[in-house]
Amino acid sequence: MYQQHTKRRIMYLAPLNYDRYFKKVFSDLTIAKRFIEDFLDVEIEQIENLNTDHLLTNNATELKFDFRCRIDKHDIIIEMQQWFKPDIIHRFYLYHAMNTALQLEGLTDKVMYAGDPKKIKIQDYRQLKPVITIVWMVTDTLSFSSNIQSFALFPENLKQFVSDETLWESKDAEKIIDARNEVLTILQNNSKNIHWMSTNRLIYAFQPNIVANPKFTKYKAWFELAQKTLSRIQDKFAYAEFEKDEVLREVVRRLCVEPTDQKEWEYIQNEEELYEKAKRYDEGIRAEGKAEGLAEGKAEGLVEGKAEGLVEGKAEGKAEAESKLIPIIEAERLAKIEAQEQAQLALEKAQLATVEAQETAKIAAQKMHKLIKRLIGMGGTPYEIAEELGISLEEVKAIADLPTEV
Questions:
Q1: Counting Cβ atoms within 10 Å, is residue 297 exposed (0-12), middle (13-18) or buried (19+)?
Q2: 136, 205 in Cβ contact below 8 A?
Q3: From residue 157, how far is each of 102, 151, 181, 192, 199 by CA, in Å?
Q4: SS3 sequence, the chain?
Q5: Among 1, 10, 12, 376, CA closest to 229
Q6: Which of 193, 290, 334, 402 lies at a CB distance of 3.0 to 4.6 Å from 397, suitable for a disulfide?
Q7: Does residue 380 contact residue 10 with C-beta atoms inside 8 Å?
């Protein structure tokens, strides 16, 4: 199905967990289908892509899903949670619930007759498909030690039965069996398809636990691949095990980033900076942000105060000028001063433009230096790098501080 891509001597895989690359990978329905099959241990006959961006109400902000599809009997959401957010439980419950509500767009009307020839059209909500939401937790485990934790809607009697310490501490086996039978009777009641509620599932998948668990699961390879890309493993042989599988090989291909693609590297760098900020926040380093906020507020206050003072001063000067005749000689003096100020401003702008041009050239040289260092770190030779970047071998050696005999 997929063409085998040419092997690269210099190879870097972007982190699968980053939003852009996750969507790039899962936009391929063959890849998405295989992941869902591996994760849920099911076989899917049909899969259909669903819209991911929605405005829920006139005043609500846009809700964006990472990935949303429809398979044989369910609607599926896959959400990648990589940054620290304190609201993830509420956030993903909302996503989970809204994926049911969004099905209203496709419900067909049911015609009911209320006496000939009068007809009434109503919506038949039995058409609603159960929703399965998979939350891919990149670093957080929510304090669980299991690979996954699934939540579904069940009668409260079940929780009460399991949590009844008095019942379990008693040695009355008959009483325990009676209580269990009572719960089973409730669970077995499927009046008006009440079991439909428990087929809706909100599943948290914990990448750290899955990778660390030595037990084999069909979905483990997906999380191992994601972890390797997140860990910045750049060895071209590190992904050989995934190359053996046709679908995972395509995932690797889609994650490949060209060493010279500056836009992709800037995106990755921005994501890394966001990750570090989120990590610091997660670790409780909030005093720094508070201090920065105070400092910025102080600075803004000074600037605003100065600006207000200038505006007020100008207003007062204008009022005074209007109330008194300014001598012609004073007007000429002011005009001369203004001309001198304009000339000085033009000079300063020219000097600033020169400095900015020098800084731009300096930044470009630094980026080229970093790129060459990165390529060497990935195993590229000076000859390969020079050819790929279109510069001379001597430039590569000079920038990389390599001896001339290399």
A1: exposed
A2: yes
A3: 30, 16, 11, 19, 18
A4: CCCCCCCCCCCCECCCCCHHHHHHHHCCHHHHHHHHHHHHCCCCCCEEECCCEEECCCCCCEEECCEEEEECCCEEEEEEECCCCCCHHHHHHHHHHHHHHHHHHHCCEEEEECCCCCEEEEECHHHCCCEEEEEEECCCCCCCCCCEEEEECCCHHHHHHHHCHHHHHCCCHHHHHHHHHHHHHHHCCCHHHHHHHHHCEEEEEEHHHHHHCCCCCCCHHHHHHHHHHHCCCCCCCCCHHHHCCHHHHHHHHHHECCCCCHHHHHHHHHHHHHHHHHHHHHCCCCHHHHHHHHHHHHHHHHHHHHHHHHHHHHHHHHHHHHHCCCCHHHHHHHHHHHHHHHHHHHHHHHHHHHHHHHHHHHHHHHHHHHHHHHHHHCCCCHHHHHHHHCCCHHHHHHHCCCCCCC
A5: 12
A6: 402
A7: yes
Both structure tokens of 84: 């620290």
Are the C-beta atoms of residues 225 and 248 closer than 8 Å to each other? Answer: yes
Q: pLDDT by residue (tens digit) across 85-134?
A: 788 899 999 999 999 988 888 787 776 655 656 667 778 889 999 999 99
Residue 97 one-letter amino acid:
A
Listing from the earlier edge strand, what are the strands of the sheet with 67-71?
A: 47-49, 67-71, 75-81, 131-137, 201-206, 148-152
Output the CA–CA distances (angstroms, integers) from residue 30 to 34, 36, 71, 131, 135, in the order listed: 6, 10, 12, 20, 20
Rounded to 10 degrees, the C-alpha dihedral 154/200/203/20 comes to: -160
Determine the Cα–Cα distance for residues 165 and 169; give it in Å rounded to an integer: 6
Are residues 207 and 138 in contact, defined by beta-carbon separation less than 8 angstroms? yes
Cβ(248)–Cβ(224) below 8 Å: no
Tokens of 101: 């509500």
Pick out the chain residues at pLDDT < 70.
1-11, 56-61, 84, 111-119, 233-234, 236, 282-333, 401-406
User: Looking at residue 357, what is its pLDDT?
Assistant: 77
The encoded tokens of residue 44 equal 């899917």
Share of the chain above pLDDT 70, in %: 77
Here the tokens at position 402 are 């390599």
The tokens describing 42, both together, are 């099911």
